[in-house]
Design goal:
It is a single chain. The chain is α/β, with parallel strands linked by helices. Among the domains are: 45 residues, no CATH class; 83 residues, no CATH class. It has 14 helices and 13 strands. It has an 11-stranded parallel beta sheet, with helices on both faces. The protein has a two-stranded parallel sheet with strand order 6-8. Helix 7 links the parallel strand 3 and strand 4. Helix 5 crosses helix 6 and helix 9 runs parallel beside helix 11. The radius of gyration is 25 Å and the shape is globular. The two termini are 49 Å apart. This is F-box domain-containing protein.
Amino acid sequence: MDRQTPLNVPEVLDHCISFVPVPSPDLLECSLVARSWVYAAQSRLFRAPHITNIRFYDQEEIVRRFHSSLLSSPHLVGLVRELDLGSSLMFDLATIATFCELSFTHLECLTLGMPEPVPKEEASSIHSLISTPSLRRLEISLLSFRYFISDCQYLLKHFSPTIQHLDMHFNLSTTSIHPPTDTIVPTLTSLRLWVDSFSEPVPLDPVLSYFNLSELKAISIDASSDVTFPWNKISLDMIQILDISIMSESTTFGDPGRFANLRFLRIRIDPEGGRPSTAVSILQMATRWPVMRTIVVSLFALQVNHANPEDYAELDSVLASLPSHIMVELEFEDDDADEDDYSIGSALEHQFDSFPQLRMRTSVCTAYRAGNQITARWRAIVDEL
């Protein structure tokens, strides 16, 4: 019998039983039971493996052992549906490349943090991972300042055409990216972009030319400066979920009247360039969205703490007067929020004081969220599409 991996428990049990001269029915039944429940247990354990909450100096050893388990047990690789290589841990490129060499035949969701441009000798394995035919959701971060146009364009060309949900972070000028040629591009259902750039405004047309946006239903745009989104290239009446950042008084998001099926709107007011008055002009269009159910206004906690109540008087009035069937939510962002250090409830109560009219509304709620919680909520809402 060929050497079996210790993790393949049913086969190990079969091997042990084979040494018994006349196996009893009980032993054979045990083998069948083990085969049924162990595979089910392994499928659950390895569906979405996460390596979190570990000390930094233990990370390398734990990641190495996890990779070794997958490498020595190929059947486990086929069980992985979700893989996180970079959202919460500092994976270096060599570590990412070792995982990319594994054949994740059923991978559906991938989070990939690219700390630096990909050397040619490691590019093929990474490209094979992001082009996995079963991939449905990709979150990729290209935040290294050493990323060049050619690197980004080369990665875009290898995105799997089966990707439906894309979350992409990048901080480079995109004006020199050329449109794809002879390439089957992904048809996106949801698109979430975080753009950091030194140029203003940032034109997104070159990057978005690598995707089919005809069936887009959810858009989220966050940026360090205003971006130029090609609203004329998408069907606004198909958009159901919209998440935008107000960076300045000139921030726009297409013709508000054409969002006929918009049911969820989140407006994030940037603490530096954003103005509540810009959000007011957008919210005044709410009566033109017949199926709207939830409107979220996101503010930085410190932004509200140090503001005069008059700064939010108009926003308070407009939010309070929205139709009663719309749930209004005030979201306060604070990545340093820690429920063990102070009462979240007291903090919310203090910041809610800046919205006296809204406090009287029945359909209203408040929330304190860090960045990872905002991402998790976006995914949950998109999954309902």
